[in-house]
Request: fold
Amino acid sequence: MSVYFAQRRKGGLIKIGYSRNVKPRVQTIRAKVIGAVPGEREVEKKLHKRFAHLRVRGEWFRPEDDLLEYISVKAQKHEPDLTDVQTVIRVPKSWLVRLDKIADRMCTPAIRFNRSKVIRMATYSGIEVLEAEGKKR
Reply:
């Protein structure tokens, strides 16, 4: 797992993001990885906080000296996983309706659950557990 620094064009904004599989993520945003550090969401959050003064929007930051120096010094030794590995789970159509209903019940103004997140959760804990969780909210 890696926290990556990606840039769409030289001199452009830099995205500080986290991914288990960096290659498809950077392809989606049409950017090039310019550095990476090992870590998960906690590391990403710390870096967002550290460079908050450079934030433009979301996870995109201005490429100023302190961020560029951090990338050149700290983010060049780690090789992010650039393999294009995805897990395919075949879900029966009848489940999709159930999963959509569960996702709707689990949503609050502060937390949004989409179908793919609910499918991942169902894979780990079972759809019956999720249905019970959705009824609690």
